[in-house]
Amino acid sequence: MKTLLADLRTSLFLTLIFAVLLCGVYPLAVWAGAQTLFPAQANGSLITDAAGTVRGSALLAQSFTSPRYFHPRPSAAGTGYDATASSGTNLGPTSQKLADAIKARVAAYRTTNALSPTTPVPADAVTASASGLDPHISLANAQLQAPRIAAARNLPLPQITAALAADTHTRDLGIFGEPTVNVLQLNLALDQLH
Question: Which of 85, 146, 156, 194 is in Cβ range 3.0-4.6 Å of 78 for a Cys bridge?
């Protein structure tokens, strides 16, 4: 019985020590390190407008439907761009439901951007990302949307394409991925144009 009580006391003492270390000290150290080394990322990569108002995160897509703005990828997250319901559709390449959805999205994309029936539509314009929250679109997708935005804002197309070029993210390490555009950042930059 004496050994059992000694073992129990040791177990409780170690549990308390590890609880303090792993539930208090370690998270506090990680938080302090992140706030010191990467404060913007640690606080959600928030994007603010010219007035200093938080408009969103550089890591999460938002819905834009006005012809004055670049439109993001379609979203399968909840009712659309819902960060609490992040997910893909899980529809495979042989799914008729996916094929029908893509066909409808291609038609809508061509109509919205006044494209001819033969103009190729970028895949990211008609398919949702795995998370449903991808904040980026391809450069090709953005370039096809630029004339619509120029017309809606009554601005010359070169001014829109210059803003697009300024907000284009190149390939990671110069070789990985394709050039992309963060839709929220670009739309906020467009709001600054006069």
Answer: 85
pLDDT digits (tens, 9 = 90+) for 37-78: 988 888 888 888 878 888 888 888 888 889 999 999 988 877
DSSP letter for each residue of 66-83: STTS-------STTTT-G
Taking only the tens place, the pLDDT of each residue in 86-113 is 777 778 889 899 899 899 999 999 999 9
Centroid of chain to Cα 183: 8
State the Cα–Cα distance between residues 192 and 151, nearest whole angstrom.
Answer: 17
| Helix ranges restricted to H, the chain | 2-20, 26-37, 39-42, 96-112, 139-153, 157-166, 183-192
Phi–psi pair at 25, nearest 5 degrees: -65, -50
